[in-house]
Amino acid sequence: MTSTEIVPIASSGLVKHFAKKQSALARFRKKPVFSVPAVDGVSIAIKTGETLGLVGESGCGKSTLGRTLVGLYAATNGDIELYGNKVGEKRTLEERRKVQMIFQDPFSSLNPRMTIGAMLSEALLFHNLVPKDKVQDRCTELLALVGLPTDSLNSYPRQFSGGQRQRIGIARALALEPKVLIADEAVSALDVSVQASVVNLLMDLKRDLGLTMLFISHNIAVVRQVSDRIAVMYLGRVVEVGPTEEVFTNPSHPYTKLLLSSVPKMHTGSQISQAPAGELPSMASIQSGCRFRSRCPIAIGECATVDPELHAINSGHQAACLLVK
Question: Contact, 226 vs 215, CB < 8 A?
Fold first, then answer.
């Protein structure tokens, strides 16, 4: 991204801390509250019409980053920009409309007491997007857009399968005519047989509606299929970002290499060659230096004291590692 390019959504030094819960005794003794930095200084920018894939192990901060970008969490520090304009902690209705989210669990993300028509019409009426006499027509259009029967408006979520519920969630997000869609593990809770159809739907909608998308997933194969660029996240930081095929064919950061090599190569029949050693350390144990050093097979002494920043490897490809030039 050039310095003058305006993108749909970007973050600069984004930080999100969560205060660790204390016991009543600790609160009585007024012990200091430890904050867990789930997202720690993330700077990303997603270009118009682009899909940025975000991958990493569970607990790395992927979902927290997505929820902070959409405004469900207030950032502890750093900036979020929508089309070049900084957004505050309290977003305007227009700013909320521009960025919408598809949640991981299609069962808990829908209100079981509301019909599908009520869910869709609520958003349309609240934001005054269509006249009242046109609301039902627009709801019908949204159902058709995501491949659901148009006579489903009076049905409840319990009457649908998991894949159909996720399509309802997509329709609800599209009701506000967003510019940016954040898909947070949108297919991970679905049967494998259903995942492909939902992924294809998202790709078609992105193309037809001109959407910009952040696709969060631990399924590396799916991310490779849908993404233009990929960002790899580890313990709250982005450690590598670049064009999808370049990152897959020429990974630079040691964590990216191990993450990609842990995926079985089904077409060749090869087994997992390597996996990141050990368990993901807690943020409390990270005091200084590179966060991956305790699991890195090529770590050197300097890694214990220097916290590397993202730096350019070539055009559009960056990595945060002292040993990558």
Answer: yes
Asked if 154 contacts 117 with a C-beta cutoff of 8 angstroms, the reply is: yes
CA dihedral of 318, 321, 323, 324, whole degrees rounded to 10: -10
Angle at 50 between CA 47 and CA 51, to 5 degrees: 125
Q: Is the pLDDT of residue 1 over 70?
A: no
Better-predicted residue by pLDDT, 217 or 275: 217
Among 18-32, 219-233, 251-265, the range scoring the smallest mean pLDDT is 18-32
Looking up tokens 């399968």, which residue turns up?
161
Q: Is the pLDDT of residue 218 over 70?
A: yes
pLDDT tens per residue, range 19-30: 776 666 656 666
- What span, in angstroms and rounded, lies between the C-alpha atoms of 76 and 99? 19
CA atoms within 13 A on the CB side of 150: 9
Strands (E), the chain: 9-19, 35-46, 51-55, 77-82, 85-86, 99-102, 180-184, 212-216, 229-234, 237-243, 311-314, 317-319
Q: What strands, in cross-sheet order, belong to the sheet with 99-102? A: 99-102, 180-184, 212-216, 51-55, 229-234, 237-243, 317-319, 311-314
Q: Where are the alpha helices (DSSP H) in 7-148?
A: 24-28, 62-70, 93-98, 116-126, 135-145
202 vs 51: CA distance, rounded Å: 11
Reduced to 3 states (helix: H, G, I; strand: E, B; else coil), residue 98 is helix
Report d(CA 39, CA 236) in Å as an integer.
4
Element (H, E) at 248: helix 244-249
Which CA distances in Å does 138 have to 111, 121, 184? 20, 8, 25
**What digits encode the pLDDT tens for the residues 230-254?**
999 999 999 999 999 999 999 999 9
DSSP at 265:
B
Six-digit token pair at 113? Answer: 């007491």
